[in-house]
């Protein structure tokens, strides 16, 4: 149940979230949504994306994690209203050790590995991941997962 997993991840990040006084919203199309995936890997994906969102929001930070049905799959998105990613850097964020000029200059911690790991996990699941961003407006990561049944959830 991907929605339950998302709730657990929000709780795991609770400390960071309250420290920065961020508003986190979970927005699920249906109450229970089952996917066929490796739980630990997808937890890692969610934690990485949500941790990035927490790192890169500023004042009045808002993060929204959503699940919906999409082309016979489940679509998960993690959206923030943070600093955004420059058009000419957006294809590079998946590279190992890549950190944008902005995030380097702001001395945000991290090695620049999170998104490389995320993309590998999603590739291993034969799923898609993509990102939309506007500098100064925010960033939205999307990834798909195969639907599963409740029995093997
Ligand atoms: P690590 O994940 O290894 O702790 P990191 O967070 O810097 O370090 P990635 O998660 O791979 O590394 O992200 C790479 C870069 O992409 C970040 O340094 C940042 O420049 C940019 N980035 C990622 N997510 C966001 C986001 N939500 N908003 C703005 N920039 C982002
Ligand atoms: Mg990261």
Write the layout of secondary structure elements.
Elements: H1 2-12, H2 14-19, E1 23-28, E2 35-36, H3 39-56, E3 62-70, E4 73-80, H4 101-105, H5 114-124, E5 129-134, E6 138-147
Parallel strand pairs: 1-3
Antiparallel strand pairs: 2-6, 3-4, 4-6, 5-6
Helix pairs in contact: 1-3, 3-5
The structure holds adenosine-5'-triphosphate and magnesium ion.
The site of magnesium ion has 5 residues, from helix 3.
Folded structure, characterized:
The chain is an alpha+beta fold and 153 residues long. It contains five helices and six strands. Strands 1, 2, 3, 4, 5 and 6 form a six-stranded mixed β-sheet that branches. Helix 1 (2-12) packs across helix 3 and helix 3 (39-56) runs antiparallel to helix 5. The termini are close together. The model has no long low-confidence stretch (mean pLDDT 93). Bound molecules: adenosine-5'-triphosphate and magnesium ion. Residues 48, 51-52, 110, 114 line the site of magnesium ion.
Describe this protein with a few key phrases:
6 strands; about 35% helix; alpha+beta; binds magnesium ion; binds adenosine-5'-triphosphate; globular; 6-stranded mixed β-sheet; about 150 residues
Give the SSE string: HHEEHEEHHEE
Structural class: alpha+beta
What compounds sit in this structure?
A: adenosine-5'-triphosphate, magnesium ion
Q: Give the biggest sheet.
A: 6 strands, mixed
| Ends apart, CA distance between termini | 6 Å
Shape: globular
Low-confidence stretches: none
Q: What is the mean predicted local confidence, pLDDT? A: 93
Alpha carbon gyration radius: 15 Å
């Amino acid at each position: 149940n991907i929605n339950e997993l998302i709730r657990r991840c929000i709780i795991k990040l609770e400390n960071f979230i309250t420290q920065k006084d961020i508003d986190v919203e979970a927005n699920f199309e249906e109450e229970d949504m089952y996917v066929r995936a490796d739980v630990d890997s997808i937890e890692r994906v969610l934690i990485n994306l949500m941790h990035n969102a927490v790192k890169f929001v500023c004042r009045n930070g808002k993060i929204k994690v959503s699940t919906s049905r999409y082309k016979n799959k489940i679509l998960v998105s993690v959206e923030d209203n943070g600093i955004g990613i420059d058009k000419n850097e957006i294809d590079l964020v998946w590279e190992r050790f890549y950190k944008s000029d902005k995030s380097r200059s702001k001395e945000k911690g991290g090695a620049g590995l999170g998104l490389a790991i995320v993309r590998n996990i999603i590739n291993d699941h034969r799923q898609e991941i993509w990102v939309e961003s506007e500098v100064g407006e925010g960033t939205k990561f999307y990834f798909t997962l195969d639907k599963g049944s409740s029995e093997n959830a």
